[in-house]
Every structure is written in structure tokens, then in C-alpha cells.
Protein 1
Amino acid sequence: MANRKSGGLKGWLYLLPAILFLGFFMVYPLIDVFIYSFEEGYNSASQTYFGTGMYNYEYVLHDPYFLQALQNTFLLVIITVPLSTGIALLISVGLNSIKPLRKLLQTIYFLPYVTNTLAVGLVFMILFKKTAYSEGLVNLMINWFGGSSVDFIDGPYWAKMFVLCFYTIWVVMPFKILILTSALASVNQDYYKAARVDGTSRLRIFLRITLPMISPMIFYLVITGFIGAFKAYSDAVALFGTDLNAAGMNTIVGYVYDMLYGDSGGYPSYASAAAILLFSIVLTITCVNLLVSGKKLRY
Amino acid sequence: MKVILQNLTMKFPSRDRKKHQDVVAVNDFSFEIPDGKLIGLLGPSGCGKSTTLNLISGLLKPTGGRIFFGEDDVTDLPPEHRGIGLVFQNYALYPHLTVRQNILFPLENLKGKDRLTKAQMQEKADAAARLVQIDALMDRRPGELSGGQQQRVAIARALVKMPRVLLLDEPLSNLDARLRLQTREEIRRIQRETGITTIFVTHDQEEAMSISDMIVVMKEGIVQQIGRPQEVYDNPRNLFVAKFLGTPPINVFEGQVREGKLYVGQEAVLDLALGKENLPKEVYVGVRPEGFLIREDGPFGCELSGVEVMGRDISVVSTHKASLNPAVRAIVSAESGPLAAGGQVRFSLKPGKVFLFRKDTEERIL
């Protein structure tokens, strides 16, 4: 018994560094932000505030910039998560079913993951940005097919949204392909042999065997995809510059950042309220995800 | 359905690119499997038995030879059109489907006029489940079943379409010893009840001997011997077959034939039947463990190293200079009387349990 007890103590001792680290950098700030979000006009320099209450939330929820950011973020999530997961699945299945060139193609598909963000931004400039010299490669192609040029960076909302979604999908794809190809490769080949002997059609093999077998991985990608997309910020900055509010392409994280440091900066209370709102959204969606999948993914 | 293999050959290209030599997994295999029999394909690992099974199933295409099911040439048919049921070594049950869904799976694939109604499918699945006695487990998932139960589900899934031929790949190797005994009887029973020609692969000779109507012993892609288990055991065609069948394994000695007598070491251990004058001088001598009789005046002396009592029988372990096995094992009846520990033990040999093999080809000569 004594042995066991000291073992428990020892265990806690081993955990201590991680607990301290997480406590200082995760739990404490989280609680702090939560408190700030209820403190009106908190000033971090003088550590003062006027009063407590729901005022910050009220303000943020009526701020057109926040509502714009909320809309952008939701659109981004709803469009990019299913699309990127779906396309990644298609590509992975394709990669898994070919033999020659598989290694080469796998490498190519993985390249965006190891490419510098600035380089990626440059590529997207070439593709989409209007400059004094060119209209961008995509516009060139649109013109070929007889369409008229669209300004993707400073133009209409849908065009900017399209570029942002395109960029996000392109950036998150390699990781998803990596995960899914390894998930596909780990499915025991005997299942496919058994299915073949039973004369199962390819579609049915995919739907009834492959998909369920890799569903835990797909689910993992969807959850992390949701969370990642909700936290989107740097992608928008890379494409539209730092003044996202003016471009109308701000995200929730961008809004939080602007409230703290941007031109409209210096409002930690509003920033905290917005951050807590984002936190509760992500938490809710993840819980819903877990509940839904908990029912389906049991084997 | 009888299954006919004609000069069946399977070559795989060599992995080693420098050696332009194919790996021959199955070499010129011809055999007619009679209808409704249980056949055991037997051999050490890498002997081509699983390849043979995959060729019959259609998962692999032979590089030469033909396969017939009855009158139909199925060599070029894909697996799903051959009418086979295949049970995998690891069962390959779909883990996310229940037992019932697993068994229904092959039926749901049927299209066109073969398509059954829902009720018919359920009926067939229930019948298959009853046959293998898992009807109480229909709503469980494979992960919630024991190895033996999973095995039955796999057999039910293979049987539900009423295949013309049932193929089992190492069906017992994932089960523990006790379950193995039970399950092999079970396979025998199911095969008898359905009357489906069944071919199973195993490396365990005891397994093959105990339930097969016929066994096929293979080595390095070449069929060594085909026959009823007892026949093959009593009349091995060569040293490999003799060594492969039987537990404990056959005892092998270096021996000489002189003047119609068989010598092992310095002793003449057996009078050989006359008319065998043209025997080679140097031979391998195989003696089945049950071929020894303890006789105080027996012609064959060994150095006794121990006695293992196994109830009805006792196993006498000894050594002999000319033995190729590390120990000579003799199974004798417990009534043979007490043995002195250490020292010499003398045997006489039962002629029918002694085989002679050529030294060069290892072919049996007597």
C-alpha cells in the first residue's frame, strides 16, 4: 500500500513541470481573460476598470466589425472544412490506388506544408493580384474564356472570400492528405480481398468498408479543421494586409488582435469578450461533433 | 463440385533484379479434388500452399495451367464469379458491422436476378448462423466475440451464398490449443452437413491429418504426395513427407545395407525382405516412434537419456551416434516394464514402421 502511495506522489512529481507550464500559460490566462471580459474598460497599464457586467459583450455583439468578422469566420469554416476534407479524401484515395509515381505525387501534394508562408503569399499574388503590369494569372484565364476581369484582392466580397477559402483549403490540404493516405494504407488488405471475393462493387467497398475504417481519422480532421478555421487570421493577413476591417475580411481572431493592438487598439475588455465568445463557439461545436461522432463511430 | 487443377503453375518475378530468375511458388500442380471432400493442403511455410489457395480463389492469376470447377474452366474468372467462399487466416470480419451485417454483406452484393428480397436474405443469414451455431450472437460486433466465435462468423459469411467451393486459409492458427481441437471438429461437421468441397491450408500436420479426407503435402511449390492421411503416414514417398508427418517426428539414422540386412552403426537391426538385392549401400533409415519395441535382447542399442510418462504410453528418449535427430524418441506401451535410468536400452524394430530412403534424392526405397 505504502508503495502505491509513494508511486502516486512520484507520478504527480513527474507531471509537475507540465502542470506548472500549462497552468501558467494556459489556465491562468484563460481565467484572466474570462475575468477581463466582465470588467468594463479595463486598462492593463493602470490595472483599473469602471465596473463589472455584461457591457463588453453587449458592445462586441453590436459592433458591425465583429459581426462582419463573425460572418467571415463562419463562411470560412462552413466552406473550407468540408471541401478540404472531401478533396483530400479524393486525392488520398487516388494516391492509394495508383502504384507508379505515387511517391512523387505524395511529395508534390505535401509541398505546400513545408513551403514558407511568404512564398505562398507571393504565389497567390501572381495568381490573383492586380498590379500595374498584370491582372494576375487567374484573370488572364478568365479573359481567355471570354469573362471579364475580377479584382480578387480589392474587389467584391465574394471574390475576396473565394480567394481566402481557396488559400485556406490549399494550405490545410497537405496535412489532411498525409493523415488520410496513412489511414488508408493501414486498412488491412484482407478486408478488400474478402470484399472482392464477395463481388462487392468499388463504390460499395468505398462506402461500406474504406470510409468506416478510416472514419476516426476523418473525424479527427474535421474537428481539428473546425478549430483551425475558427482560429484563422494569418491567412487573411497574408492576402489582404493588416487592415482587415477596412477590407471587410476580418476574422474573429483578427478582431481580437485589432482590439488589443490594432489601430482601434487598446481595448483589452472588448478583446477578452470577443475571445470568450470565440472560445464558447469552438467549445460548443466540438462538443456537438463529439456527440454526433460518439454515436456513429463505435467499433 | 469437383475441382480440377491442371499443371497449375505460379511464378513471381524475383525481387532481386540482378537474378533474372522467377520465384516459382507453385510448380506444375495437377490434382483432381473429388466432390464433397475435405482436402488439407499441408506444408511448411513458404511451400506455396497459400498461393495455391489464392489461385483457386481467383485472387491470383496463375502463370500457367488451368483450374476447373466441375466442367467449368474458371481460370480466367474473377473471384466473385467463381462461386467460392473464402475464410481468411485473420477472418477479415468487418469490425464496424455486426455479425448479422457481416453475414448479410455477400448477399447484399448480389445484383439483377440473383438479388434476394430482404426477408430471403435474413432467412439465409439465419440459416448460416445456425449452421455454425452463432445465432445468439447476431447483434454483436466482431470485437466483442472470442477468437473461436469470430472464426464461426467468418465461416458463416463464406457459406451464406452457398459457394461451390469453400476455401480456408490457416483456419485454426489464430486459436488456442483447446479451441483448435474443438474448431477442427466443427469444420469437419460443417463440411459434412453442407457437402461443400472444402480446401484448407495448414502448416500443422496434426490438424490436416485429423480432419482431412485427403492431404496434399507440398514443399517449395512442388507437390510431394497426395493421399488419405493414414496412407501418406504409413507410406511416405520421400524423406521430407516422412519427416513432416507425425508427432513426435520420425527418427532418422544413417544406415547401411549389407547382405540383406540393415545396419545402423555396427549393429544389424533388421532383416530386410529378400529380393531387394539392388538396394544402394548407404541409406537413410526412418523409424516411426511407435516402431520401437523394448527387448532386452533386441538388436538395436541406444544410450538412454530419459523417460517421459504420458499416461497410456511412455516416451523413451535416448541418443544414438548414427541418429540425425538430436534425440531418438520411442513411444512404447506403459506395460513395457520399468527401465533403468541411464545406461543402455535395447529395441527391436517393427518392420512396417521402418522406411529406407535414397541418400541422394531422398526418395523412399523401402
Protein 2
Amino acid sequence: MPNQLQNRVENYVGLLNQNIHAIQDELNQTQQLVESSEPGTVHLMAEQLMQAHLETQWVQVPRQYSHADYFLIAMDRFMQLDGVTGYSVLLPVEKETVTLVMTNLNVPAAFAFEENKDQNGGAYFVELSTGERLFYWSLERKQIQFNARGIIDLLVGNFAKQHVTVEQNQIIATMLTEFGRYMERVFNYSVDFNLLETRDDDVYQLIQHAEPQGMLDKLFVLSADTDYFLQSIPNGAGVMLDDNTEVRIFFVNDANALGAQRWHFQVIDGRDQYSWLDILLKYDFIANWYLSETDTLEVSYDQLVFAVQTTQPTDIQSIFTAEQGTTPMLDEEVLAAKRAAEAQAKEAAEKAEREAQAATEKAEKEAQAAEAKAEAEAQSESETPEAAVDDATVDPTEVTSETDDTETAVDSSESTSADATSATSTSGKTFEEEIGEALNSSNNTSEG
Amino acid sequence: MENMPYIQTEIPDNENVLNNKLNAKVKYVEDVTTALNEHDDRRVYELINSKKYNELIRGVEHADDNRSLASLVTDLQPDLSHHLADKLIQYLAEAFPFFYYQESALGVFEVYFGNWWDRAYFGRLDPINVQFKFKQEEYQKLVESVRLAAKGQRYHSAAIDELTKTNEELQQLVEKQGERNTQRQNLENQLAQLDEKGGFFNRPSTEERDNLKTQLSALDEEDEQAETVPDQIEKNNATILAYSKEDTILIYEQRAINEKFGSFDQFEAAAKSLYVDYVKQLAAVAEGGQADA
């Protein structure tokens, strides 16, 4: 019969081992996620990582990538396998967080995933400074849904107004489209491209908020200042643009539609080359018209998935100013705590030294005063403190060379030492109680 | 006085004349038939109005008209018009490329200016007389917009500016609601104060009270107006849009005319001389065809 101590230690080792295995599993998955050149493996690993929760109690991993980060890592891997370019990923050295930025963009913008916390899972691809949600991605259901409104608000309503060029905007649009197409092609995803669709025969579905009032008249008036003009077509209007591209805006009769007219857009270029978004990016008069009509109608997107259109915008400046690198480093807080601990040790050592010195001096005085008396006994007493001084000074001298440079280190050392004192005192109060509890619990175990 | 014979009324024989006339009619109808069958539209034009043809194409002064003969085919005008429109519209597609036609009834051709959104109905084409019958309202608008364009203005510029100004004023009426509320509060306070000490200084306070009440009712009026502002602005915006659209159409019309004719005057001249230009062109083609044959 194994004794209780053995049991106790074995259980302890078992718990740690369990945690270590869980960590090891996730590390293996993470490694495959970033190393495998097999798309299926990358997808599978990403899926598994989305299920994982490294909330280990016994062996803790203080720095982990979040599910949202794994989405971005997976997206980067797929785009890498597909040869999509034009973006880069920021890698702060002090934390495990990844952010996507466009390499050639003259406005601050950063993209990352935001995990969807409800039972539907998946994640939103978000521009952080505006909070615009550009698409939704579910690995589990193999589904990508673009958000026409978010994409238009960001690229057409925001970026283009800040003098982002058509080309720069198109790089973003191309990245999104290519990613969707890759997932559709390789994994048979169901992708709702809506405003990114380039097929000529695609008729853009619209959400109709109100019955149009003079909508085409407005576009006609706007077109007057351009080289293009609006023509009548059955049930609507069309405009011939550059590069043999024709845009049509028309309705079909539909008793179920608002005003019994179901409106559509169509972009026809003969090569399946341009999407509605391309048209909005390239032709300001159509973009201005569209933005002014979105209260009437807009390119449709999944209104349930994007019931909430935006995420809380965040200040992205710190993302850009953070130190970047491929080697992880401990952050300032951890380093400060480490320095504080070292400073405390140094202080303690100095105190010990001072006390030892005082003791020595006192001993010397006493020795001088009682020179005649008991010489052999006095000698043995004065030797002991000297030995203590020697031992104590070994560590502090090493520490000093590292930490005696900054004032902040001193400040934090003070606060930490204060904390340490209070901690000691509280644990001192409950020490006996704790022992009592420990004994009781072990008694319970043996009884049970 | 006997046997005085009555003088017999002698009716001269006009058989020849009648025959000649009937023959002329028959010949006329035959000529028209032949011309139609041979698609000789020049000849048709000559036959249906020889005076016009001789004067304008042959340059004969005071030519005789053939109205009586032509009246033989009067009731066929819709059919003739339809027939003649075929070649005429082909010709017009080059001569006036910005006009489009819709045959609303047999031989009745409506003219539309341009192929742009909500193009204007611009009148009718009369293939028998080879002329445009422009809708005066539209035509005068175009003439006026040409005149204004020389001054860098559009047809509805003034009206649009006026409406825009009105909208701004209306908007201010709404924006000043807060001010009016404060003002109303002040006036009402003053009125209340007057009521308190009303008994002592009756006369002057009545005057003052009236004055305050006048000011208050002025505020009431402005408040009432402010309530209707959104509707008014919306209405004005709709009018502005309609005007802008019409201006746009007029700009397109001028642009189309200038591209083809260089100036509005030249367009007017070309429209006026359409019969001569077209029928001469038919004659030239016919001669060219004969020369080829």
C-alpha cells in the first residue's frame, strides 16, 4: 500500500503532466498551422485550435495567441499559399497578437479578427480604427460572408475621401476577393461575395429600405459633369463607362417587393472583370450617388450576420508604435517586476551588511572594553557575524551591476517591498489556520 | 309668231377634255404607283407636290401647283408617310444623329431628342413635307438655353439659386427655434410681471402688454412656419432636382447640336432646308444610280 505522501506527489505530477500534454498538443497544432504547406492541414489545425482553450490550472502559459489571432494566422497562411500580396502582418515582440496592415496605404488602418462569441462561432474581419466589419468567417461551416455596407463605408466612404487612391483601395478589394475565391476553390466554401462579385451575368441583389424618389434623375444630373451619360433601358437606366463597361440599374416587377418593384444593379464588361465595388471606387459620381441613396437601397449582405455593423473602434496608434520583431520578448511589466525583485534582494543584502557591520563594530568595542575578560569566548562571538557578512554580500554585488541605474527601478522596488511585507504579515496571521486546514483536508482524504 | 322654234340648247361635246382629264388622273395614279414600286422617292415627292418640287429643286419661279391631282392620294397620306419615312429616317440618322423616332400611329412619327435618360419629346417628323414640326415649348427652351449658355448660365440657374436660398432661409428658421424659445420665455416672464403690478399702472401696462402680445404672436407665426419646413424643403428639393434634370437635358441637347453642326444657328438652317437637302440628295443618288447602270 503506497503511503499518502507518494499518492500526493503522484497526483501532483499527474496534474502537471495533464496540463503539459494539453499544452504540447496545442503547440503541435500551432506549429503545423504555421509550417504545413498542405492547405487541408492548415485548415484542420485552425479548426482544432478554435476548439482549444488553454486554461490550464497547474502549468500556466501566460502568453498565448487568441482564437482571433489564429484566424488571422490561418488567413495569412491561405493567402500565402494563394500568392496574395500587398499586405503584411505586424508582430509586436512584447505580446502574442497579430494585426494585418496594407503595405501601401497612406492612411492609418489595421485589420484583425474579432471572435464571434455567440453559439454561431466564427469571427469578423475588422478594421480596428473604424470598427468596420468587412467579412464573417466560419471555419466550421466553411462559410465566408462579405459585408457590402462595411466594405463600402470603409473603402468608398472613408478611405477614398481621405485621398486613398483607386489603386490602393483595389489592392484591399483584391485581397478580400482572392481570399474568398481561394477558400471557395480549395475548400468548397460557400462565399457570399455580394459587392465583390465580378460575373457579368450576376445581378446584384439589393436591400430596399424605401421606395426610390427621383433616384435615376439624381444619377443623371450627377453624370452631367462627367464624360458619361445615363441612357434609358427597359425599366431603368444604363450608363456606358470606360473599358466597354456598362452599368445597369433597373427593376423587375415583383408583387412582394417594396413598391412592387425589385431593383437590381448589373455590371457588364464582357470579361467578368469588374465588380460593383470597382465601379464605386473608379467613378466618383456613381459612388456619391450610391452613398446618397443608401437610405433607399443598398447592395445586400446577410442582415442577420451583420445585424451589428461595427465593432467598437480602437486607437491603433500603439499597434504601430510597438516594437516589432520575430523574437518574443518579455514586456516591460514583467521586466520591471523582475528588476524590483532584484532591487529588493539588493536592499535586503545591504541591510544585512549594515547590521553585520554594526554588530562587528559593537563586538569590537565590547572586545576592547572587556579585553582582559574572557578572551577566548569573545573571539568566538566576533567570528560568527563576519562569516555572515561574507555570505550575504555574494548575491547583492551581482545584482547591483544590473539594477542600480534607473529611478523607476528604485520606485518599483519600494512599492514591491511594501507589498512583500504586507503579504508576509497576512500569511503570518493565517499560517496556523492554513496548517490546520491542510491537516484537516489530508485527514479527510485518508478517512475517505 | 307661229312655229317659232325654240332655240335648242347645244351642249358642246367635252368628251375629249374629259378623257384627257381622266387620263391625266389615271396617268398620275399610275405614275405614283410606279414611283412607289420602284422606290423612287424623289419622283413621289415631285408627284405629290410639283409646285414645291419645281420651285425648290428645279428653281422654277411661280411654278403651277398640282393640288387637284395630288388630292387623289390625299386619303393615302398615312400610308405614304409611312413609306417615305423609311428612307428619310435613314438619311436623318446621319444628318441629325441625335434625333430618335417612334411611329405612334401609321405614318405619325414622334421625334425624341437624344438617347439619354428621360430625353425630351421634341415634336413630330412630317415625311410627306420632309420637315420637322418641333414642339414649340421644347424648342423655345432650347433657344433660350443657348442664349443663356453664351452668358455661362443654365436655363434654370436663377430658379435653382432662388430655391436654394429659400431652403437656407427655411433651415435657419428651424435652427433658430432655440432662440425663439428663449425669447418666448422672456416675453412670458415680462407679461407675468406686468400682471403682478397691473393694478397700479393700468394704462401704460396695457400698451406694454399689447406690445408683448404682438411679439408673442409673431413668434407663434414663425414657430408654425418652422413646423412646415421639412415638407417645404423636401418639395423644393424635388423641384430643384426636376430643374437640374431639365438643365442637364438642355446641356446634352446643345452639346449634341454643337458636335454635329458647330452652332445652333447652323442647326436651325439645316432643319429649315431639310426638304431641299434631302430631295436633292435623292436626285443625286438616282443620277448616280443611272450613271452606274
